[in-house]
Design goal:
Length: 571
């Protein structure tokens, strides 16, 4: 489809790589559409008959976008068979997957014809736009003809789940949406604007004039021209910057500016909370509906954003805020409290327990860490005891050495994912020699971690891939020197993505009365009828038990918090 002003402008069809036709629905000459009302009704009946036929094999590119339009305006859910974007993503995650890129790879006679946008551009005539629509269809058909045999020869099971299972789950969640407490939304907005006004007034009184912190020009003039601070440049652009890291460096070097800089940072945080999270646009029924992308990341994690109609937001990044945190002066609201269950339902948040770490431990086949995980031990304290030869019980060490526990937390995470001594020294603020000594001690205590690194490095050098236990692969096309940390991180992240999505499918299949509303990487937010009572919770947890097929099978444990009030009130 091609779209205009939130509506379907035209629909294209192709049944071969050389033939296609376009059915225009909107046009400039007639405000009420290209066809008379009766003619358009007949066309939509025919299109619905074809798209929803049980034997239809509908092919599309990023078809979940098109389905939002088909469903919203015509309640049509096509019999969807193959998404070329999903197919390419399964074979080559992390590589570009726009239609023009795929056409250049798979089509016999490829000539670049247009950008991948679906919105009509007024400077292009409608005849040209309809012609582009036909080309899109023919290219997509030819791409599918090339991709499908390659998928069936290498990753048919993985493709089937991503295409036929996950896409249906995503569509259901996108259509359903999640209810919003509009009165609390208004209250949060009022409180945030008040806090913003207080800080803007304070800055104006200190400076004697207004300062627009969103203006890069004004900020640079203040800090680098008026205050004459040393210029900090971005590592990427090499241009002067005043991002949060730069402001923190200035605050450390010039403590007399600490309070002023903190006010600017607070203003930035308040502005993000207000504009991004609290003022996110709702649909007319006061629900948030976002668009999920099953091909959004190389690790097969989902990504989410506002939907095709401009409402919604990234639901996987909803903050808990800092309410009740005594360690910060800025009290940001728990935005999750805006998300409420439907009447008669209880909302729940099911979270996998230390999911990425569990996978790392099983990859390393480390019995000591496996036992610690099963016993619920505080691993950061246990690791601090190992790294620094600390004596006493774990509780005593946690109380006496909080700094070493925090260092162990950052250190072990970075080292497990392939950080070398120099990288870890910079990350943790220690000398390279200290870093080398700690890594020697860590790998001596847990040799399985080093064996996993060696095994993955060998896989990179011989096959240029990383692979998880569900059979998903990441192919590294660039130089593999320095790719080990990326490959090591990909394995647990992709594994957890496979687990949480299969848990979603299992719950949807076994417990149809339970609705999953949001997926947040390693957790699921949903609702169940309050009348089901506490007895349904162990059934949800049981349905979420997904076996990762290691030699010693791994089931990542999960916990559930519930509330009849809101997501943010789950406990």
């Amino acid at each position: 489809i091609e779209t205009r002003a939130g509506h379907i402008a035209c629909v294209g069809f192709s049944e071969s790589k050389t033939q296609a036709f376009c059915i225009p629905l909107m046009c400039i000459e007639r405000w009420d559409g290209y066809w008379a009302e009766g003619e358009e009704v007949i066309l939509w009946r025919l299109m619905r008959k074809v798209l929803c036929h049980r034997n239809a094999r509908c092919i599309g590119q990023n078809f979940v976008y098109d389905m939002q339009y088909f469903w919203r305006w015509f309640l049509v859910k096509p019999t969807f068979w193959f998404d070329t974007m999903i197919g390419h993503h399964v074979l080559f995650p992390g590589t570009p997957k726009g239609l023009s890129v795929l056409a250049s790879l798979h089509c016999e006679h490829y000539v670049y014809w247009k950008d991948d946008g679906k919105e009509w551009e007024q400077k292009k005539g409608e005849d040209t736009w309809w012609w582009y629509n036909c080309q899109d269809c023919a290219y997509t058909f030819e791409i599918a003809e090339s991709l499908y045999p390659a998928i069936q020869a290498s990753l048919p099971t993985q493709w089937d789940f991503q295409q036929n299972v996950l896409q249906n789950l995503l569509f259901r969640a996108m259509v359903r949406g999640i209810r919003i407490d509009t009165s609390k939304k208004a209250m949060f907005a009022f409180e945030l604007r008040e806090e913003i006004t207080k800080r803007e007034t304070w800055i104006r009184e200190v400076l004697g004039h207004e300062l627009n912190i969103k203006s890069s020009k004004q900020m640079k003039e203040l800090f680098y021209d008026d205050l004459k601070l040393p210029v900090i440049k971005s590592k990427k652009t090499h241009a002067p910057t005043l991002d949060d890291k730069a402001l923190e460096r200035h605050a450390r070097k010039f403590p007399e500016l600490g309070l002023f800089i903190r006010k600017i940072q607070e203003l930035r945080s308040l502005g993000v909370f207000l504009s991004t999270f609290v003022e996110a646009r709702l649909d007319r029924d006061q629900r948030i509906r976002s668009s999920y992308n099953g091909a959004g990341t190389e690790t097969f994690r989902l990504s989410s954003s506002e939907n095709a109609f401009g409402s919604g937001l990234n639901l996987q990044n909803i903050p808990k805020g800092t309410e009740g945190d005594d360690h910060t002066a800025l009290q940001l609201p728990n935005v999750r409290k805006l998300y409420i269950p439907d009447p008669g339902y209880t909302i729940f948040d099911m979270d996998l327990d230390r999911a990425d770490l569990q996978v790392v431990v099983w990859e390393a086949d480390d019995d000591e860490l496996r036992q610690a995980l099963s016993e619920g031990v505080d691993l950061h304290t246990l690791n601090a005891k190992t790294l620094f030869n600390l004596s006493g019980s774990l509780e005593e060490i946690k109380k006496r050495h909080p700094d070493k526990r925090q260092l162990a937390k950052s250190w072990v995470h970075g080292t497990n994912y392939g950080g070398g001594p120099r990288t870890m020294a910079m990350t943790c603020g220690i000398t390279v020699r200290e870093a080398e000594r700690l890594q020697e001690r860590w790998f001596a205590a847990h040799p399985g971690i080093k064996r996993w690194h060696t095994r993955q490095e060998q896989l990179l050098r011989t096959k240029r891939i990383a692979e998880n236990r569900f059979g998903y692969r990441h192919v590294f096309f660039d130089r593999i020197d320095g790719a080990l940390p990326q490959a090591l991180a990909w394995v647990p992240q992709s594994t957890v993505a496979c687990v949480i999505n299969r848990a979603w499918e299992s719950i949807a299949t076994k417990l149809p009365e339970v609705e999953i509303l949001v997926q947040v990487h390693d957790s699921l937010v949903g609702q169940f009828p309050t009348s089901a009572g506490p007895a349904i919770i162990p059934r949800i947890l049981d349905a979420a038990k997904i076996v990762i097929p290691y030699e010693r099978p791994l089931i990542i444990p999960a916990g559930i918090k519930t509330s009849t009030v809101s997501w943010g009130d789950c406990e």
